[in-house]
Write a structure and sequence with these properties.
This protein is an all-beta fold and about 170 residues long. About 0% of the residues lie in helices and about 55% in strands.
C-alpha cells in the first residue's frame, strides 16, 4: 500500500467560540488543512484596521483578551514539501461598548445671555451608538435625546454642567 503525496488542500480557518466577538473575550483562530505528508508550517497573515499585512506562525492564534484594535482580515497558509495552500480570508469584527466619549460645543468661547449653543456628543462604539441621552448635573430627568442638543435663547437658568450618555447593545 502506498499513499499519494499532495500539497495542502481544503485549508480553512475556524473561530472559537463562534458567533459575535466581544472585546475582552478569549478567541482562538485555528488553521486546518488536508496534506500528505503532513503540514510542516502554518503561517497566519493579518491586516488590522487598514494597515499592512503582518505574519505569525503556528496552527493556532489565541487572543486572551481580544481588543477592538485586533479587528481586521486574517487568513492562513499551510505548507509542506509539495507546496502551499491558503484559506479564505475571514473578517474579524470585534464589538465593544461606547468609549472615548466627548462633547463638542458650538460656537466655542464665551456664551452670552440670549444666544444659542449646540452640544454634540462624540463616541467610539461598535456597533455604532444607537441612543444618546443628555443630562444636566444635579437634575435627575434627562434634558434631551439625540446626538446633538441645542439650547436657544440662553438665560441664567441654563447655567451648569451638561453631559451625554452614549449607548449601544454592548454598554454605555
Amino acid at each position: 500500500m502506498y499513499s499519494i503525496s499532495n500539497k495542502p488542500k481544503s485549508t480553512s480557518v475556524s473561530v472559537s467560540p463562534s458567533g459575535e466577538i466581544v472585546e475582552g473575550s478569549s478567541v482562538t483562530l485555528t488553521c486546518s488543512s488536508d496534506a500528505n505528508p503532513p503540514v510542516q508550517s502554518y503561517i497566519w497573515w493579518f491586516k488590522k484596521n487598514g494597515g499592512d499585512y503582518q505574519s505569525m506562525t503556528g496552527p493556532q492564534h489565541v487572543f486572551n483578551q481580544i481588543q477592538s484594535s485586533d479587528s481586521g482580515e486574517y487568513y492562513c497558509e499551510a505548507q509542506n514539501e509539495m507546496g502551499t495552500d491558503r484559506s479564505r480570508t475571514i473578517n474579524m469584527d470585534v464589538k465593544y461598548g461606547p468609549k472615548s466619549t466627548s462633547v463638542s460645543v458650538s460656537p466655542s468661547g464665551e456664551i452670552v445671555e440670549g444666544s444659542s449653543v449646540t452640544l454634540t456628543c462624540i463616541s467610539d462604539a461598535n456597533p455604532p451608538v444607537d441612543k444618546y441621552t443628555w443630562y444636566k448635573k444635579n437634575v435627575t430627568s434627562p434634558k434631551a435625546s439625540g446626538q446633538s442638543y441645542s439650547i436657544t435663547n440662553i438665560s441664567s437658568e441654563d447655567r451648569g454642567e451638561y453631559y451625554c450618555e452614549a449607548q449601544n447593545g454592548r454598554g454605555s
